[in-house]
Design goal:
Elements (H helix, E strand, L loop, with lengths): L1 E5 L2 E10 L12 E6 L3 H11 L3 H9 L1
Antiparallel strand pairs: 1-2, 2-3
Organism: Gordoniibacillus kamchatkensis
Protein name: Phosphoribosylaminoimidazole carboxylase C-terminal domain-containing protein
Pfam families: PurK_C
Length: 63
């Protein structure tokens, strides 16, 4: 678990869950992230700032 904050305050807690799969395959889910925050906007800002889903968003637009 990792806590992220901007401007001196804790805003979002991020937990990475890996499924322990040994081989990556196309469209295979290898894990996921949980974001915990007292405010939805703070969590959405974290997603935008980090770009964690940027690649997936651009792939969706190409379809």
């Amino acid at each position: 678990m990792r806590r992220f904050g901007w401007g001196g305050e804790e805003e979002v807690v991020v937990k990475l869950h890996l499924y322990g799969k040994h081989e990556a395959k196309p469209k295979r889910k290898m894990g996921h992230l949980n974001l915990l925050s007292d405010d939805v906007e703070k969590a959405l800002n974290w997603v935008e700032r980090t770009g964690v889903w940027r690649e997936q968003e651009s792939k969706r637009r190409e379809r």
